[in-house]
């Protein structure tokens, strides 16, 4: 079958009634075994959030549709790589979506800057700019290291809320955790990040 009928379609569908709801994680594990019916159900459950995140990052309908299609194909092809011991199924899929959307933004930006880069070839980069670039990379590494020190729930909550733009209620729904628990873990996680990064208030 052609890549699960090109991951169903180009556009996300509204959730359909498949009887008793099945969890995204269970569906993804069944998809990993080649279960096409499970993929159809998974598609209906996650297509809205996948397309919504792509649209939020890209702010372009056509590119969002392309990223949505790519992600659903990747889910079908690589579902066997999902490890439930390392995080939620929705987080795995949304992280994949965010990565592809950001890659698309970077690619577009690179194309837009190509002429400028060519024009600046041979020009020595100012010292201050070099310092700024090095500092930014060091800070990014430090943030990644500090994020790895959080618990799984703290890290997933912070990533969804602050890196992917979801509200607390949306994070609660995506992770299947009570709203109060999300708020508490988010607060504790941000405090740990602040201390790890050496931020003073």
From TrEMBL:
Family label: Belongs to the sigma-70 factor family. ECF subfamily.
Protein name: RNA polymerase sigma-70 factor, ECF subfamily
PANTHER family: ECF RNA POLYMERASE SIGMA FACTOR SIGK, RNA POLYMERASE ECF-TYPE SIGMA FACTO
NCBIfam families (UniProt xref): PRK09646.1, sigma70-ECF
InterPro entries listed in its UniProt record: RNA_pol_sigma-70-like, RNA_pol_sigma-70_dom, RNA_pol_sigma70_r2, RNA_pol_sigma70_r4_t2, RNA_pol_sigma_r2, RNA_pol_sigma_r3/r4-like, WH-like_DNA-bd_sf
Pfam family, one: Sigma70_r2
GO biological process: DNA-templated transcription initiation
Record-level Gene Ontology MF annotations: DNA binding; sigma factor activity
Domain of life of the organism encoding this protein: Bacteria
Record keywords, A-Z: Sigma factor, Transcription, Transcription regulation
Residue ranges of every copy of the RNA polymerase sigma-70 region domain listed in the record: 42-109
Domain RNA polymerase sigma factor 70 region 4 type: 141-193
């Amino acid at each position: 079958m052609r890549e699960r009928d090109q991951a169903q379609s180009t556009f996300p569908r509204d959730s359909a009634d498949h009887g008793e709801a099945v969890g995204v994680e269970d569906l993804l594990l069944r998809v990993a075994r080649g279960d096409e019916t499970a993929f159809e159900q998974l598609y209906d459950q996650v297509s809205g959030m996948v397309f919504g995140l792509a649209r939020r990052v890209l702010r372009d309908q056509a590119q969002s549709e392309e990223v949505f299609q790519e992600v659903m194909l990747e889910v079908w092809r690589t579902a066997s790589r999902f490890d439930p011991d390392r995080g939620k199924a929705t987080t795995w899929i949304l992280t994949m979506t965010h990565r592809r959307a950001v890659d698309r933004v970077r690619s577009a930006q690179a194309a837009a800057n190509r002429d400028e880069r060519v024009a600046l070839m041979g020009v020595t980069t100012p010292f201050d700019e070099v310092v700024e670039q090095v500092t930014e990379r060091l800070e990014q590494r430090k943030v990644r290291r500090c994020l790895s020190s959080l618990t799984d729930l703290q890290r997933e909550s912070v990533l969804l809320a602050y890196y992917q733009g979801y509200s607390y209620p949306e994070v609660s729904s995506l992770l299947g955790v009570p709203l109060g628990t999300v708020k508490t873990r988010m607060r504790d996680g941000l405090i740990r990040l602040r201390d790890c990064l050496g931020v003073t208030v």
